[in-house]
Design brief:
globular; 15 strands; about 525 residues; about 40% helix; ligase; alpha/beta; metal ion binding; single chain; Mur-like_cat_sf; 8-stranded mixed beta sheet; 7-stranded mixed beta sheet; ATP-binding; Folylpolyglutamate synthase; 18 helices
């Protein structure tokens, strides 16, 4: 057992887990095939070869929508009565979110038992030639141990990064593979051409195992089709789910793009049911009806940090609803465009039923609170704020223009953009991972983001776009807490300071409702959820 932070068994495990982090970015060398054979060694050490070979796996890769597709898939099969295991990444608040059994995060007691079972055996058997696994590889191996020991009927695995060399790809005979929409992300690891990226994702395809994808750019689809042909794989292409099949209900995950993920999930579940001999007459083809269990799974699915709306509960009751966070972990150009579209439409939805439907992810916010937030906010002027960060390997010149233009096309203009470093640090995993002190934080990346934003604003103003006057009297703009305050943006040395400024602004501007879009990084979304909840 490792020595722990605050001495609790759980914190001790997190300290041990943190010791496996070898880099400050998710894009590890291991994702380029760096000794992928080691993953197979770890499987052997833990005697997981046979359990993995017997596991009825649904394996999903892609650039966008992997987590949502896996969430829909798990929810459908759980509604069909199966004992489900779901492995996703990253986590937002607690590492146990990555391992879900029957739709719930694994409990602390089970997590600790399986964690130390794996960690201690690997520590004992590894050496210089076979070192301890890196962070993500360990978590993937842990997922296999958990699902094997819990004897799940189905294991749904979301690829962490890429596909071919991802730790989840030790599965040799999945029941079905899915590939979600492909785009440009993690190019420094996966390649700078869409064909290269598609080739990495197609690395999860296996001989004669059905594969299902969605419409893709021509360059990507050509690679998928070629790879499928080489492996004798039937490649099925599905279209977005027809909303009419839900019998008047709405998907559990918000946003029009989710109908494509839902269509893929329905096809994955249908194929899994057929290939495991479970189907009978439950579901044939997507025509005029869906089985009731499928509808239930699609409409009750929940996933934190994707198109999630959270009214801030720290403000006093008469101001409740004056500060609302719109959270979405979009971090690629395509997903940011989708996020911007969702935000623009969401802030315009005044109808009470629509407002309530936006809140399925967190039952602790009662209908009464949501109604009050909607009712009071509707009587006030609204102002939109952007709270943003992204990893330094991403190009803000690709991300920010897409976000700004899509919002502007829908008549939404941000009064202020706030740039902050993530609170959670990459070299420590913790239930409340402590940030570095403000004086030690390197803000050079946030200043880069700020300059990119200010330059964009100048271009839009030069093109005649109507931008809200940052000095307007409607909102008092006291930004003394910020490190660098420009006309349309500010950099804060920490997220808590930015949240404090937002909360103070609510108190100082009683007639204004603040609608804050938090995006660019799932880590940032998780950090905000920690503070707000």
């Amino acid at each position: 057992m490792a020595e722990g932070g605050n001495g609790s068994p759980y914190e001790e495990a997190l300290v041990a887990l943190s010791s496996l982090i070898t880099t400050r970015t998710r894009a590890e060398k291991s994702n380029t095939g760096d000794r992928f054979d080691l993953v197979l060694e770890y499987v052997k050490i833990l005697d997981l070869e046979e359990p993995i070979s017997k596991m009825k796996v649904i394996h999903v890769a892609g650039t966008k929508g992997k987590g949502s597709t896996c969430t829909f898939t798990e929810s459908i099969l759980r509604s069909c009565g199966f004992h489900t295991g779901l492995f996703t990444s990253p986590h937002l608040i607690d590492v146990r979110e990555r391992f879900r059994l029957d739709g719930a995060d694994i409990c602390e007691e089970k997590f600790l038992a399986y964690f130390w079972w794996c960690f201690d055996r690997l520590k004992e058997k590894t050496d210089d030639d076979v070192p301890m696994p890196t962070y993500f590889r360990f978590l993937a191996i842990l997922a296999f141990k958990i699902f094997a020991a819990e004897q799940v009927d189905v294991a749904i695995l979301e690829v962490g990064l890429g596909g071919k060399y991802d730790a989840t790809n030790v599965v040799q005979a999945p029941i079905v593979c899915g590939i979600t929409p492909l785009g440009y992300d993690h190019m420094e690891i996966l390649g700078y051409a869409l064909g290269e990226i598609a080739g990495e994702k197609a690395g999860i395809l296996k001989y004669h195992v059905p594969a299902i994808t969605v419409p893709q750019p021509d360059e990507a689809m050509a690679v998928l089709e070629e790879k499928a042909s080489q492996l004798g794989v039937p490649l099925q292409v599905v279209t977005p789910l027809d909303a009419k099949l839900l019998n008047g209900q709405r998907l559990g995950l918000e946003g029009e793009h989710q109908y494509l993920n839902a269509g893929l999930a329905v096809a994955l579940c249908s194929t899994w049911l057929k290939r495991t001999g479970q189907l009978e007459d439950m579901y044939l083809e997507q025509t005029s009806t869906l089985p009731e269990q499928f509808i239930q799974g699609l409409t009750t699915a929940s996933l934190q940090g994707r198109a999630q709306i959270i009214p801030d509960q720290s403000v006093n009751t008469e101001n409740s609803g004056d500060l609302v966070f719109y959270l979405d972990g979009a971090h690629s150009p395509e997903s940011l465009e989708v996020c911007a579209r969702w935000f623009s439409l969401a802030i315009r939805e005044d109808h009470q039923d629509q407002s309530l439907d936006c809140q399925p992810q967190d039952s602790r916010f009662s209908h009464e609170v949501v109604q009050r937030h909607q009712g009071e906010g509707a009587r006030k002027n609204s102002t939109q704020i952007l709270l943003f960060n992204c990893m330094s390997v991403r190009d803000p010149q690709l991300l920010l223009p897409r976000l700004m233009k899509t919002c502007a096309d829908h008549g939404v203009h941000f009064k202020k953009a706030l740039f902050v470093p993530n609170t959670s640090v990459y070299n420590k995993v913790g239930s409340h991972g402590s940030p570095m002190s403000d004086s030690k934080v390197d803000l050079s990346w946030q200043f880069n983001l700020q300059r990119a934003w200010e330059n964009l604003m100048k271009c839009y103003k030069g093109a005649g776009a109507k931008i809200p006057d940052a000095a307007s009297e409607e909102v008092k703009d006291d930004l003394e807490m910020s490190v660098n305050n420009y006309e349309h943006s500010a950099v804060f040395s920490s997220l808590p300071l930015a949240i404090k400024w937002l909360r103070d602004s609510v108190q100082q501007n009683q007639s204004v409702r603040f609608q804050v879009l938090v995006t660019g990084s799932l880590h940032l979304v998780g950090d905000v959820l920690r503070i707000v909840k």
